[in-house]
Write a structure and sequence with these properties.
75% of the residues lie in helices and 2% in strands. It has eight helices and two strands, in the order H-E-E-H-H-H-H-H-H-H.
């Protein structure tokens, strides 16, 4: 099976391996220089390490991908690999792969992941790998970036738990991110350029993740509202 992304499978595997190695080094650096105290089930440095990638890395690579495309953003979203230069799109897939893999390095510094996180990461890795072999990867870039931007707002809300502003930013951003991600999933389902099975699995994953994330975001919002009410 030859990837649509313009690489042979051995090249894809080598690049994914390199992204994994870089991600592990990134975790080791964060472990060495950032706070290690336990924070909502994970070391604080692991939460902090996500923010530059979520808030800067993903949006930057998406903007570079759109800028390198010979056409508008709407055309880019629906474009097959053959219509793209593909450099930044591949870079995004590698960045997302490494972003997930950095959590595996926690085992080398005394940490780890629970079963739910492993399930989440395995599904996401499979999705990333799939888009090396199927068209319409830009839909994943937009939806994935939106969800990670929402995730960053949740991290900031947890860090600044007594800020009413961050509570409002969190619930608004998370909700908007899920609207964008689910909208991209619906669009993906409507396009025949990718195999039906891939579209159905992708749609199911996006809607499932969005539902669970939104449910948790609203739980945090209610808890914050209770705290603010008691403080008043």
């Amino acid at each position: 099976m030859t990837p649509a992304a313009g690489l042979e499978t051995p090249e894809v595997l080598v690049q994914l391996g390199a992204a994994s190695a870089v991600a592990c080094v990134y975790t080791f650096i964060c472990h060495a220089f950032l706070p290690r105290r336990e924070f909502h089930g994970s070391p604080l440095y692991n939460w902090l390490s996500c923010l530059p990638i979520q808030l800067v890395g993903f949006p930057l690579v998406v903007s570079l991908a759109v800028g390198s495309f010979d056409g508008g953003a709407a055309d880019w979203v629906a474009a097959p690999w053959s219509a793209m230069d593909g450099t930044w799109e591949r870079a995004y897939l590698l960045l997302m792969w490494g972003y997930l893999f950095k959590d595996c390095a926690l085992y080398a510094v005394g940490g780890g992941m629970d079963a739910m996180y492993w399930a989440h990461h395995v599904v996401c890795w499979a999705t990333v790998f799939n888009f090396f072999y199927t068209d319409l990867c830009a839909i994943f870039l937009v939806g994935g970036s939106a969800m990670e931007f929402g995730g960053a707002s949740q991290t900031l809300h947890l860090i600044f738990a007594e800020s009413q502003l961050m509570d409002k930013v969190h619930v608004t951003t998370m909700t908007a991110s899920h609207v964008v991600a689910c909208g991209m999933a619906v669009y993906y389902l409507s396009l025949p350029a990718a195999p039906l099975a891939a579209r159905l699995v992708f749609g199911t994953v996006v809607f499932g993740l969005s539902f669970e994330r939104q449910k948790y975001a609203m739980k945090l919002h209610r808890e914050a509202a209770d705290r603010f009410a008691k403080r008043a």
